[in-house]
Amino acid sequence: MADVPDALSAEQITDGLGGLPEWSLADGMIRRTVTAPTFLAGVELVRQVAEVAEGMNHHPDIDIRWRRVTFALATHDADGITFLDLEQARIIDGLVAELTVADGAS
Known about the structure:
Blueprint: H1 10-18, E1 24-26, E2 29-35, H2 39-56, E3 61-65, E4 68-73, H3 83-102
Antiparallel strand pairs: 1-2, 2-4, 3-4
């Protein structure tokens, strides 16, 4: 089994979320809900996040409800939030920004 990173302290999580304004802490996970311009755009966003997750070997919980996609991140093996979750949240934010630009909403 690969090394499991240590869970972050409450202060470290708060500091990390300071740079991730669209994310919030709830039920031991960091969460963000995105409203995609279309259902297919939301599914494509999920596909892109899944590709990143496979590369990181770190998989988020994802809930799709029509155009609304919710991502929830925690490191289950560490029983908390780790640097991997904050890193993946930053990557997801970048993918969401690209989705918005690709849709012409700029």
